Amino acid sequence: MTPVGLLNRSFEPEILDGPEVPEAARVRAYQELQRTHRWLGNTTAILRLLRSDPLPIRRVLDIGCGHGALLQRVRSEFGVEVVGFDLYPAPADSPVAILTGNAVTDPLPCADVALTVCMAHHLSEADLIGLIHNVSRSCRRLIILDLVRHWIPLALFQTFVGPLLCSLNAHDGAVSVRRSYTPRELRGVVGKALEGSTGKVRHTVSPFYIRQVVDISW
C-alpha cells in the first residue's frame, strides 16, 4: 500500500542546499555522498554510458558537481578534460576546474557530454526545461541521472542506507526521494524541453526504482 501523500511531490528544502551549512560539514557530506553513489551503482552507470558514446569524447561537464569527485573519476578513467559547474564556489585546493553559477540561466562551458547526477529533483519543471535548453547550446549530449519518487526506494533508503549516513545526508536523502520526479513526470518534462528540436532521448528506470536515467543527444 502506497504511503499517504508520497506521490505528491514535496518541495521541502534540503539542508545541504542552504548556505548556512559550515564548509567542513559540507566537505564531509560531499565525500560521503560520493561513496554512496559508488555503492549504489550510480558512478558505474555514468561510466558505462560514457563508454557507449559513439563519438570521441574530449571534454566532460558535470553540472551540480559538488567538489568534483565524479569528474576526477571520469578523468582518470578516460583521460579526458573535465570541468564542473556548481552553485557553490569550489574549494581552493580543488583538483579539477569548477565554475560557479546558475546552470539554468548562466552560460555553460562547451563540452562533448554534460552530466547531472541527482540534481534534477532540485529543479522545478520550468527550471529543468531551462537547464536542458541551456545545455543544448554548448553540448551534444546530456545525461541526467536522478532518483525516482516511489515508496520502494524510499523504504530501501530509510531501512538500509540512511542509518549508515551522517544525519545531514540521511535527512536529505529521504527528502530527495520525495522531491524527485516520477518516470512519467520526467518523460513529460523532457518531452516539452525537446519540442521543435532535433533532440533524441532514451529514458531508462532501474529495478526497484533505484534510479532513472535520461540520455539526450542533439
What this model shows, in words?
There is one protein chain. The chain is α/β, with parallel strands linked by helices and 218 residues long. The protein is built from seven helices and seven strands. It has helices at 23-40, 42-51, 69-78, 125-136, 151-161, 167-179, 183-194, and strands spanning 59-63, 81-86, 97-100, 111-117, 139-146, 200-205, 212-217. The protein has a seven-stranded mixed sheet, with helices on both faces. It is globular, with a radius of gyration of 16 Å. The chain starts with 22 loop residues before the first helix and ends with a strand. Mean pLDDT is 95; it is low at 1-5.
Number of strands: 7
The main sheet comes to: 7 strands, mixed
Helix-strand makeup class: alpha/beta
Overall mean pLDDT: 95
> Which value, in Å, is the CA radius of gyration?
16 Å
Instruction: Give helix and strand order, one letter per element, not per position.
Output: HHEHEEEHEHHHEE
Q: Can you tag this structure with a few keywords?
A:
single chain; 218 residues; alpha/beta; 7-stranded mixed sheet; 7 helices; 19% strand; disordered N terminus
